[in-house]
Each structure stands twice: as structure tokens, then as C-alpha cells.
Design a protein that fits this description.
This protein is of the alpha+beta class. Helix content is 27%, strand content 28%. The protein folds into two domains: 1-83, no CATH class; 90-179, no CATH class. It starts with a helix and ends with a strand.
Length: 179
């Protein structure tokens, strides 16, 4: 259903439209697993960066609004919710990351460093074959203990400084159940 919507709206969206448009298409294509379609959309998400200060403009030609924050924000969303596969649900953070090649770049590893959840600070690294999660900081009085569950393995407690690596695929991070 989502792929049909993306195809439909791609055909009627102004191809000269503003920068934030393409990042949302990239996230959608990452989500349905069509990495051929995600690649050009992801790259268009940062095509509006202009030298010398790498400021986003509304259009790739440099025209329109200068310092087009919604375009920059759209690109950041394509990194956080696209390349990491992160989704925020009521009871967990879920992940289903695409391989780095889905960006159409030469990237072989993508890292989302220092994201926060329930008082904890975490890192996610994605390669073509694996996903690694690491608890960078937590365990203080306000932090909730966390458990990582991946399709390829059982649930494991996240511990500061102990990275957990699984086959790239669906994972979730949630509160640990009280014992």
C-alpha cells in the first residue's frame, strides 16, 4: 500500500519542488525495502546544500529561501528515521535499518551516535550485514534499564560499554521488565 502511494505521489509531485520533499520519499522507500527507489531520493535530500558554508537553499539552483531549515530538517529525518530505520512507538523504539548502500552513496557503515531514550544515551551502527547497539550512558537514578530484542536473537539487557551485534533486521529497545 505504501509503495503504491509513493509511486502515485512521485508521479504528481513537482520535480522542481523544495528540498524537504525528497527526504520524505527516501524514508518511505527505505521503509518498504525498495532501495533502488530510495537512492536518488536520499541524494536529492542534500542536493540543495550550497557552498561555502553548506547552507540549505529551497532549490538546488540556490534559489528560493536561503538557510531553508525545513529542507535541512527533512534531510536529518531521512538519516534518523530512514537510514537507522527508527520508529517511536508507545512502548519501544523499533528499528529496521536498510543497508548503507540504500543511500546511493559509497557508505559502508552508518552510525547514529548519542540518541537518548528513557534517560539513557545510545549508539546504533549499521553495516550491510549487521546492526550494533551500545548503551553509552545510563544507569543513573533517572534512567530506565533497557532491553534489546532482535529478530535474529533473544532479548538482552543493554549494559554501558557492552555493544550488542546482530544480523541487520528488525530490533526493538524497550524498558526491562521488573524481576
Amino acid at each position: 500500500m505504501l509503495a503504491n502511494d509513493l509511486t502515485f505521489y512521485n508521479d504528481i509531485t513537482d520535480q522542481n519542488g523544495p528540498a524537504m520533499t525528497w527526504s520524505l520519499f527516501a524514508i518511505g522507500w527505505f521503509n518498504v525495502g525498495n532501495f533502488t527507489a530510495s537512492q536518488p531520493q536520499f541524494q536529492r535530500g542534500f542536493a540543495n546544500v550550497q557552498p561555502p558554508f553548506d547552507v540549505w537553499t529551497e532549490f538546488p539552483s540556490g534559489g528560493g529561501t536561503v538557510n531553508f531549515i525545513t529542507g535541512a530538517g527533512g534531510f536529518l529525518q531521512s538519516v534518523i528515521y530512514g537510514t537507522s530505520g527508527m520508529r517511536i512507538t508507545r512502548g519501544a523504539l523499533t528499528f529496521n535499518p536498510p543497508p548503507p548502500s540504500a543511500t546511493g552513496t559509497s557508505a559502508v557503515k552508518l552510525t547514529v551516535h548519542s540518541f537518548h531514550y528513557l534517560g539513557n544515551r545510545l549508539r546504533q551502527e549499521v553495516t550491510a550485514d549487521h546492526v550494533t547497539f551500545e548503551l553509552l550512558a545510563g544507569g543513573d537514578s533517572g534512567a530506565q534499564p533497557l532491553v534489546l530484542s532482535c529478530a535474529a536473537g533473544s532479548a538482552e539487557q543493554l549494559t554501558v560499554g557492552k555493544p550488542l551485534t546482530f544480523a541487520r533486521g528488525k530490533c526493538s529497545i524497550s524498558r526491562s521488565k521488573p524481576r
